[in-house]
């Protein structure tokens, strides 16, 4: 019976990622529990001897290296031309930490070799955290502005960072549990289903439009990918088709209610603190900041603003954030990294993880996420899924060839 493997390094990594959204509590300013754990792994974790680290390096290290080269240029431009540098140090430290994590922490973890074990620990820790979050919610704690649930996070979108990917990581893990039947499969499945259900529920409790929009779009994407897999022969199971037929029936029966609900949500979001207009303003001002230094950007920092460009506010959009901080060069590297992730996922033929990738793209459109460790963890998970499935298919093919050779010998 197969055992879900993890080293202590990977177990700590999974725990650090689950609690990385605890931005309400810090020991020393920007340093929190997850940062301390990742620093510990980076200095004392055991190095991985994985043969496929090149796949990680190609998609990640080159991106970080180019950013490291152009960052001083952006900083110099901002100091000598603009003269405003509020919050620049915070983002510079965040980037240095991300670089450390990419070059040290992930090189020490066997993400693709122990993928199912890492996902198992991530979902188990996530289930425990969700129980704590539910207790906080029903006891009236952990609210943002006394109206939206944020858990230990400074705002609901930050709590959404760990919640929005859980349904898709959980569905992928659940399918593998059913296929490979490891030890404690039933218990793992129950915990996984609980974690998925409570994460979706908590996501709606946050009233985070970022979480809700990314979930709706990714669910639609999941059905599209299932259809593609079915009609192209990538999947031979009829269950997805039955699921899609059921979804279409529900849509036809309740489409008026669904459309009315979406319209009500858009109206409430636009009226709630004028969110849509505020986001539009910071996006436009972030693009204006990018145009001031389009090649190498303005260096790390928040260069957007609510009512005026360079007003010292976040852009609430990872892509614009990269443009205004690291310019067109950094943006190209980000797109290269995302494309490498998509290619790995497409080769894995996993509708759940492709839907998670779509959710990731949408979430980043409404939230500044690039400087968070979870951003990189999800990217590494995407790439690891592709490598894991490739290795699995290679082993299956080798076993088939060996059995064929044995049959020839016996004949």
Describe what this molecule looks like in 3D:
This protein is mainly alpha-helical and 411 residues long. Helices cover 73% and strands 1% of the residues. The protein is built from 15 helices and two strands. It has helices at residues 8-18, 33-44, 53-59, 61-82, 88-108, 115-138, 156-163, 166-180, 185-205, 209-231, 239-271, 275-292, 318-348, 351-366, 373-410, and strands spanning 143-144, 148-149. Strands 1-2 form a two-stranded antiparallel sheet. A hairpin with a 3-residue loop joins β1 and β2 (148-149). α1 packs antiparallel against α2, α10 (209-231) packs antiparallel against α11 (239-271) and α12 (275-292) crosses α13. The model has no long low-confidence stretch (mean pLDDT 83).
């Amino acid at each position: 019976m197969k055992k879900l493997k993890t080293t202590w390094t990977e177990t700590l990594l999974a725990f650090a990622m689950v609690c990385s959204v605890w931005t309400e509590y810090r020991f020393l300013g920007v340093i929190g529990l997850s940062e301390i754990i990742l620093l510990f792994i980076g200095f004392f974790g055991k190095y991985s001897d994985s043969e496929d680290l090149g796949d990680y390096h190609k998609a990640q290290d080159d991106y970080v290296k180019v950013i490291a080269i152009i960052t001083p240029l952006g900083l110099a431009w901002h100091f000598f031309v603009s003269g405003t540098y509020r919050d620049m140090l915070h983002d510079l430290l965040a980037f240095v930490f991300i670089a450390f994590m990419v070059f040290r922490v992930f090189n020490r973890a066997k993400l693709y070799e122990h993928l199912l074990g890492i996902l198992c620990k991530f979902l188990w820790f996530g289930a425990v955290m969700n129980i704590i979050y539910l207790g906080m919610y029903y006891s009236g704690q952990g609210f943002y502005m006394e109206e939206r649930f944020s858990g230990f996070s400074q705002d609901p979108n930050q709590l959404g960072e760990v919640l929005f990917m859980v349904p898709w990581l959980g569905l992928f893990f659940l399918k593998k549990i059913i296929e490979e039947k490891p030890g404690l499969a039933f218990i793992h499945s129950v915990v996984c289903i609980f974690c998925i259900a409570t994460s979706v529920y908590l996501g709606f409790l946050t009233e985070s439009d970022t979480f809700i929009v990314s979930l709706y779009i990714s669910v639609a994407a999941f059905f599209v990918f299932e259809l593609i897999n079915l009609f192209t022969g990538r999947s031979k199971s009829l269950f997805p088709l039955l699921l899609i037929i059921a979804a279409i029936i529900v849509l036809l029966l309740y489409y008026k209610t669904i459309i009315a609900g979406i319209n009500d949500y858009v109206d409430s979001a636009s009226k709630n603190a004028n969110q849509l207009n505020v986001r539009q303003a910071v996006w436009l001002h972030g693009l204006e900041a990018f145009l001031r230094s389009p090649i190498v950007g303005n260096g790390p920092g928040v260069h957007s603003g609510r009512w005026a460009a360079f007003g010292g506010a976040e852009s609430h959009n990872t892509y614009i954030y990269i443009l205004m901080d690291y310019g067109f060069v950094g943006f190209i590297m980000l797109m290269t990294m995302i494309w490498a992730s998509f290619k790995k996922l497409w080769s894995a033929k996993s509708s759940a993880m492709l839907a998670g990738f779509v959710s990731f793209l949408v979430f980043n459109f409404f939230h500044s996420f690039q400087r968070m460790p979870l951003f990189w963890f999800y990217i590494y998970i995407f790439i690891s899924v592709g490598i894991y499935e490739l290795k699995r298919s290679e082993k299956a093919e080798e076993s088939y060839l060996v059995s064929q050779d044995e049959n020839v010998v016996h004949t």
